[in-house]
């Protein structure tokens, strides 16, 4: 098998790659069948607004599309030095599979996060998770999670 990865990394934004790989497998079914397939992946990353006061990029977008049409994407937005939002979603062969949204707040000695996953108001499904982490000492933090 082989793999080729060509990336453009000229600056922080955008970073685009082309990955071509060939894979094979041997499957027993009354004899041996040798299967070979070619895989094409297209990951792309966009980083914007790097600022020293946040010690991170303000916006970060990562996408990955393969040759079957499946998509993985993640978007992170640093709203302020204390508030960050994140959205992640996934499709599989052009069919929507799942998504998740996070909102995070960082205090001086605590962090609180709310996560919403796969909400569907019609069916009444999905999950909401709340996290809380409190610093007790500089080297010890305790927290909890509510589902």
UniProtKB/TrEMBL annotation:
* InterPro entries linked to this entry: Porin_dom_sf, Porin_Euk/Tom40, Tom40
Its record classes its membrane topology as: Multi-pass membrane protein
Recorded hits in Gene3D superfamilies, A to Z, give:
Porin
Q: Which GO terms describe its cellular component?
A: mitochondrial outer membrane
Q: Which domain of life is it from?
A: Eukaryota
Can you say where in the cell this protein is located? Answer: Mitochondrion outer membrane
Q: What UniProt keywords are attached to this protein's entry?
A: Membrane, Mitochondrion, Mitochondrion outer membrane, Protein transport, Transmembrane, Transmembrane beta strand, Transport
Its recorded name reads: Translocase of outer mitochondrial membrane 40-like
Give the family this protein belongs to, as stated in its UniProt record. Answer: Belongs to the Tom40 family.
Primary location class: mitochondrion
Q: What is the lineage of its organism?
A: Eukaryota, Metazoa, Chordata, Craniata, Vertebrata
Species assigned in the record? Ictalurus punctatus
Pfam families xref list: Porin_3
Q: Which GO terms describe its biological process?
A: protein import into mitochondrial matrix
